[in-house]
Description:
The protein is an alpha/beta fold. The chain contains 8 helices and 17 strands. The protein has a 5-stranded parallel beta sheet with strand order 2-1-3-6-7. A 5-stranded antiparallel beta sheet has the order 12-11-10-14-13, with helices on one face. The chain starts with 5 loop residues before the first strand and ends with a helix. The relative contact order is 0.09. Residues 128-145 have low confidence and may be disordered. Keywords: Phosphoprotein.
Amino acid sequence: MKRNLHLVIIEDEAATARNLEYILQEISPGIKVIATLQSITEAIDWFTSTNNAYDLIFSDIRLSDGVSFEIFKQVSIIKPVIFVTAYHDYAIEAFRNNGIDYVLKPFDREEIQRTLHKYNTLIAAGIKSEQAKTAPLLQEFHYNTKPYKKSFLIHYCGRLIPVEAVKINWFHTEHEIVYAHTADGKQYVVEFTLEQLEQELDPALFFRANRQFVINKNAVQAVEYFFNGRLLVNIQPAAQEQVLVSKAKAMHFRKWLDR
């Protein structure tokens, strides 16, 4: 008797990993998630020691300590991968790392069910050709990519006003309310979480600095070295609290600024 599907999830957002596991098991109760890995380091350690007793990997691309492709460069992984991410700018690289599909966040049950069906179809057909895997992916990528958010329609003083995303220097959250701060010093309440903004905004322009801040590259005035490998970011207009980037994100942040 064929055993149920065993999966590995690579995702640094615990809530996203739980949601994905819930959807997977709702689609097929027999699915078993045998490991949830939150970082490149953890994933490398796990795959190095495992005996390949899994069938499929769902992997985010941007993790807290870098880009997940580093895992595949350091560990030989032969099982197929479905990449689940908010950023489609890594699509081609994803295809080179055993990728059989590419799902953009925010995902839903229908999207996950579609990609599982695709996996089952490929396995049933015994398709192993890299060309057979990547050709349909390229076509789907062409049709499924979504534009980044360009503007916000904001409630302000009894009116609705459009505010361009590029004119927002930074977002921060306080008491579960998210505020947008523009270059001219104005502050607005936006009806998004930072997690949603991270998915909707252009990653070339906006960076999730920490749990409280998403910042616009144009708002960065200077970066200072801080304690324990962290970075202190000076932004304009100035925030009331320090904007710190963790040691784990510091290298990625510096590369982002240097692009």
